[in-house]
Design brief:
The protein is mainly α and 225 residues long. It has 8 helices and no strands. The chain has a single domain, classed as 3 helical TM bundles of succinate and fumarate reductases (Up-down Bundle), CATH 1.20.1300.10.
């Protein structure tokens, strides 16, 4: 534990923590997107999928516990990711010189700043997303247990749909930069990796962001109704 604590105290250790916790979310958003594709198969299939998530783990876990355990793991990863990002930001501010700055450093700071503010924006979106489609607090047409109806009713609001699409663009930018930089942080930096990490980051960003944008578009155009 002492070695782990010492490693986390360094910039390298924090970047590794960011990469690992970020990888958990990359996996989650890809699985989440893939599962939501079932909405195109109709209300019965989609509601059955949503109910299956609550029942997953029976008879080893009580009804709904799997989702709460899964959410707890994601929440812990989120807290670690956000706290580590804030810690790295403070280190960067403390180490930044005021008299002389290289142009290269300014470019790095610009990229980091995009990730920082993009991360804050995505955190606020995540809170909204939970209150909108999970608890129904911000969805006046929310019907408990009817995931398909809540999905369609939620995206029939044009401001909500547009906001969601903008957030997905922000998510795509975050995924692209985060994915290729994580490869470098974790030491996957050979000649082949250098050629593949940016295209891979772009593919993941386009699949997740573009795929999620399809959902509000499908509802607004009446393809899913």
């Amino acid at each position: 534990m002492g070695r782990v604590s010492s490693l986390y105290g360094t910039s390298v250790g924090k970047k590794i923590t960011m990469a690992v916790s970020g990888a958990i979310f990359v996996l989650f958003v890809m699985v989440h997107w893939f599962g939501n594709l079932k909405v195109f198969m109709g209300p019965e299939v989609f509601n059955h999928y949503a109910e299956g998530l609550r029942e997953f783990g029976d008879p080893f876990l009580p009804y709904g516990w799997f989702l709460w355990i899964f959410r707890a793991v994601l929440f812990l990863a989120l807290v670690i990711h956000v706290w580590t990002a804030w810690s790295l930001t403070r280190q960067s501010w403390a180490a930044r010189g005021t008299k002389y700055k290289k142009k290269e450093s300014l470019n790095i700071d610009a990229a980091s700043s995009t990730m920082r503010w993009g991360g804050v924006f995505l955190f606020l979106f995540l809170v909204f997303h939970i209150l909108h489609l999970t608890t129904g607090t911000l969805n006046p047409d929310f019907i408990p247990g009817d995931a398909y109806h809540n999905f369609v009713a939620g995206f029939q609001s044009i401001p909500v749909a547009v906001f969601y699409m903008v957030c997905m663009i922000a998510l795509g930018l975050h995924l692209y930069h985060g994915t290729w930089s994580a490869f470098q942080t974790l030491g996957i930096d050979g000649p082949r990796a250098q050629k593949l990490r940016r295209p891979l980051g772009l593919i993941i960003a386009l699949v997740v962001a573009g795929g999620n944008i399809l959902f509000p578009v499908a509802v607004l155009t009446g393809f899913v109704s």
